[in-house]
Amino acid sequence: MFYMPARVFSGNDAIKDHAEALTSLGRRALIVMGGGSARKNGSFFDVVEVLENADVEFECFEGIKENPTVESVMEARDFGLENGCDFVIGIGGGSAMDAAKAISLMMKHSDETWEYLYDKEAPSDMLPLAEIPTTCGTGSEATAVSVLTRTELNTKKSSVHKLFPTVSFVDGKYLKTAPKSILNNTAMDALAHMVEGSIHRKATEYTRMCAAHGLELWKSCKPILLGEKVPEDEDLQKMMDVSTMAGMTIAQTGTTIPHGLSYPITIGCGIPHGKCVSYFQAEFIRAMEKEDRDWILSRAGFSDPDELNDFFVKVCNPEKIPSEFRERAYEELKSNPSKLSAVPYEITNEILKRISGI
Ligand SMILES: [Fe+2]
């Protein structure tokens, strides 16, 4: 099965050109954003313009932080309910978009406590949700995943619910004002989604179709990440589309070992998500069967895993991860059968240690 029910509008002025797809979602929107980037890149003003033109009211919940916490989701939920909002718009990177999904769910289930996010037996129905990415890695606009920080556990845990947006607007111009480090880190996250998704046990010809084309497009953007080319409008749109295609891939498969290893390190060391998953990618690829390794590397334009790692070092400038965090990540992953069993090869402790870098 390939199931990705979100309508995706891609291209310049996607919101303005398809305004009705946004304004038909409700009468009063809760706009969920991070810091000031949604104003800086213009996405917020595009949304406001189409809402005002259609007399749709809105309230803003600003300040969703990186790696959003369950507590912040509940705070936004209460704010949305108090203000009578009947649909949600998430604008930003993965943090704002993932939070918006959980907020939509919890607003629909207004009497429930935060534990609902992790209740496998409970229904996943949510308020209508629009997602507008302003970075190029998470793919959250095309996935059902909402990764949240569990403060009491000191790590990140996805909600168990399948939370697909109703509609997503994928417009490359919102990347124009993104800092280069965010562009690079998030583009490496998109690469990780295609790498991990394409060998996943749940991979099919259809997911490989998304990953294969996404990898080819990703390869053509490498000079931008290296700083050798100033991106033009079509390059930025391409980077945004890669991210969405990579999202479509993992929406079917899920992620595997590098993502699993990254979570406690991102929280413990404050290393951005896309950069953090990339530490483990080269050894992960090396552990694959040759056919899979070649399939990925040839499309991404690398001759071997070392070349991919050199590229990562150049574009992300990674700091050293203290060994105790690598060890903790290894131990945590060893006890997480879902991430390990998603890999169709035997992953011995020795191989896992090598991937973890310990
Ligand atoms: Fe990711």
Identify the notable features of this structure and list them briefly:
358 residues, alpha/beta, 6-stranded parallel sheet, two-stranded antiparallel ribbon, 18 helices, 8 strands, 52% helix, 11% strand, binds fe (ii) ion
Number of contiguous helices: 18
CATH A-level architecture of the largest domain: Up-down Bundle
- Identify the bound ligands: fe (ii) ion
Instruction: Report Rg.
Output: 19 Å
Using DSSP, what is the number of strands? 8
CATH class of the largest domain: Mainly Alpha
| Shape estimate | globular
Helix content: 40-55%
Which structural class do you get from the secondary structure elements?
A: alpha/beta
How far apart are the first and last residues' alpha carbons, in Å?
Answer: 38 Å
Strand content: 5-15%
Query: What is the CATH topology descriptor of the largest domain?
Result: Dehydroquinate synthase-like, alpha domain
- SSE pattern, N- to C-terminal: EHHEHHEHEHEEEEHHHHHHHHHHHH
What is the averaged pLDDT score?
Answer: 96
Biggest sheet statistics: 6 strands, parallel
CATH superfamily of the largest domain: Dehydroquinate synthase-like - alpha domain
The unreliable regions are none
Description:
The protein has helices at residues 14-17, 19-23, 37-40, 43-53, 70-82, 94-108, 180-199, 205-220, 222-225, 233-253, 257-269, 273-278, 281-286, 290-300, 305-316, 323-334, 337-341, 349-356; strands at 7-10, 28-33, 57-61, 87-92, 129-133, 147-150, 155-158, 167-170. By secondary structure, the chain is α/β, with parallel strands linked by helices. The protein folds into 2 domains: 7-173, Rossmann fold (3-Layer(aba) Sandwich); 180-356, Dehydroquinate synthase-like, alpha domain. A 6-stranded parallel beta sheet has the order 1-8-5-4-2-3, with helices on both faces. Strands 6-7 form a two-stranded antiparallel sheet. Helix 6 (94-108) links the parallel strand 4 and strand 5. The longest helix is centred in the last third of the chain and has 21 residues, at 233-253. It is globular, with a radius of gyration of 19 Å. The two termini are 38 Å apart. The site of fe (ii) ion has 6 residues, from helix 7 and helix 12. Fe (ii) ion (FE2) binds next to helix 7 and helix 12.
